[in-house]
Predict the 3D structure of the following.
Amino acid sequence: MNVVLGVGAGIAAYKAAELARVLMRRGCTVSTVMTAGATEFIQPLTFAALTGKKVITGLFGTRSAEEVLASSVEHIAVAQENAVLVVAPATADLLAKFTHGLADDFLSTLYLAFTGPVVLAPAMNTNMWNHPATLANLDVLRSRGHKIVGPDSGDLACGTVGPGRLAEPEWIAEAVIAALRPQDLTGETVLITAGPTREAIDPVRYITNRSSGKMGYAMAAEAAARGARVVLVSGPVHLTAPLGVEMVAVQSAREMRDAVMAHLDAASIIVKAAAVADYYVAEIAPQKLKKTAARVALDLDPTPDILAEVGAKKGDRLLIGFAAETQNMVAEAKRKMATKNADMVVGNLVNQSGTGFEADENEVTLVMSTGETRHIERASKREVARQIFDQALRLRLSLHASQ
Ligand code: CTP
């Protein structure tokens, strides 16, 4: 993915360097264009070193016509290569220039020449942000289909508190990724479960498992980026909610079941990535249990199988389950698909190093109700999520065609 990063003249320009790093980490190639003012805040060399690419700066007047032409041709070529233009920080001045089509420096000229998606991350003083002129400009820019990310509220460099702070680089990067995704889940509600469940023993202890929630959260971020309304029913995890996702926080398997059933009607795709406890403690002790010298036993009752319950009443909804296994992965995934009436089960081995529970990467095998299986090579959980949705949409088409 090619990204053109436009850097405006604001104190937040230094955060654009972090954005460049985040974009690179997410597999993007980043070319930087800085306004003359931006170079007063941060050196072009920083971006050149981070991105490994020459940085275009400033006014036409500071460069020879040949240089400008060469780099503009280069950037127009990039624009035609399915690139995104992201401007961070987008100052009040840049927003005004873009709105009115002024082209008196390289970045504003590039904006006019650019035909791909545009993401703007404004940052400025609160009064400038709230000014009717800025608000009117934003209306125009939004009406062109540009994505506006932030600003966040908080302490500003000018000493005031309020909206105006540049959005977090992770959020801006997510908007950039989303801008290049096909919007093939628009109009759909995707219901996703993620993370472990926690089954209380007494007020201070519980039974849980090693699920980090990363795979389910990656599925949620991917579905949202592709235009879906996403409801994410999450067990207790240490992750930030993905951009634009409706969160429902639960603890136990039974709470997760109730939350899933409450949102089932609206859903067209259900993804059960959660590692649900199979048992809960039959009687939760009202007070902290005290130790004794004797062996103790816990009475456990089976939890509801949420996937099977959804499978029994899914209608034409697409149902995707997960099977985290330590052996016989494909056979187990097939068995779970059949017994729980899922359309697809994502099988993975959780006893390999670097993938599965807690890891940032995964390697999975998809088994499908059509009898097909498909292996997804080791990749980031987000990339695996992208491929799972690609395959799930193909599967749905073939299931509908065969009806
Ligand atoms: N699942 C569920 N409710 C449960 C248990 C599991 O919805 N009470 C779902 C999981 O979210 C996952 C799939 O079922 O999508 C498979 O979960 P897994 O724990 O691998 O399967 P189990 O049926 O519990 O089988 P086993 O423990 O024997 O491997």
User: Anything to note?
Assistant: Residues 193, 253, 272, 274, 276, 278, 303, 305-307, 321-324, 336 surround cytidine-5'-triphosphate (CB under 6 Å).
